[in-house]
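Morning. Coffee machine broken again, so started the prediction first thing and wrote up yesterday's gels while waiting. Chain of 373 residues, entered below exactly as on the submission form.
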Amino acid sequence: MSGKLFCGRCGKKIVGSYVTAMGKNFHPECFTCYGCGKSFGKSGYYEKNGRPYCEDCYAEKFGPKCVKCGKAIKGSYITTDKGAWHKKCFVCAGCGTSLAGKSHYEKNGNVYCQACYEGLFLTKCDICNKPIKGRYLTDSWGNSYCASHRNDLPECFFCSRLICEPLTGGGVRYDDGRTVCNICKKTAVLSVADGKSIFREVAKTLGKDGIKALSDPVDIRLVDLKNLGASSHTSRKTMGNTRKTMYTAFGRGKKCKPDEIRFLYGLPKTLFGTVAAHEYGHAWLCVNGYHDLPLVVEEGLCEMFSYLWLRRRIGGWFSSADKPELEYWLKLLENNDDPVYGRGFKMAQKSARRMSLSKLMEYVMKHRAFPYS
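Came back before lunch.
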């Protein structure tokens, strides 16, 4: 009995030739793949849980599946954080170059060589058009660029864009030292006649909010930075300046007369209108007896005039092409943190939300302050 052999698969006695594998003996016809039933022939087998499998069945049942094609992997393969890959599948999804033995980048289930990954997925600099690998900046106009360009290129005095061909089509430098981009220069107000036309439009627009037009015209001048003069109560750039004279009228008390309004030469049209509304506010307060107001109150009201004009002009008199600029000046006004202009505007706006403009002006005339701070 001890000399008898029994098949490890069917359990029957073996007579004649047999196969020894996995520590057992098998009839030749019983030693087949446990998956497909085919004979192994001269090829090897793979053992799993005491059962033999051909290479195909073993790979299908127990081997890794390729991340790319989803098929079973036979033989050697490549592994990444995403899983296993056939060597033939481990190629750049952009250019098709084999990445075996090379550095690679993974994105959305695909692998890429460095050049394709940077070209396809990294933010491109709007100035040099190269993929941005390090720190970058995004301006208020949505332009993203390498941080190093901030030190290399001049900034537009008005819109703060970096002046260069890709962003602004270049720019100019005025004699007073200002650098201005060609976008702002395109609509620059360069004549008093054009300035007066916009100033009249500002007065007409503000009239829709109940601000009565000035009875007498105000002289307008276009000047450079030197002749405009910087404001002594703010660090922000000065774009306009209202000159006025206080005098005592016989029997009628103190009076105020706006002599002239100076505007910075070359203001782009939409910014000229914004500044004109602010300076119109100074002239209007002067003529209508709002004398000696605290600075934060007067500048806050004048910023409110600019705000009212901008709100009405967006989608109005200016073309749709001007809308981004109008919205930019409005955003600057609303987000201004200047202790005089910004704080004053926020108090004026808060008050205007709780009462009519006419009631607000009556309150300021009587109390020389805003009702809400």
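The two ends are 109 Å apart (CA to CA). Going to sketch it on the whiteboard this afternoon.
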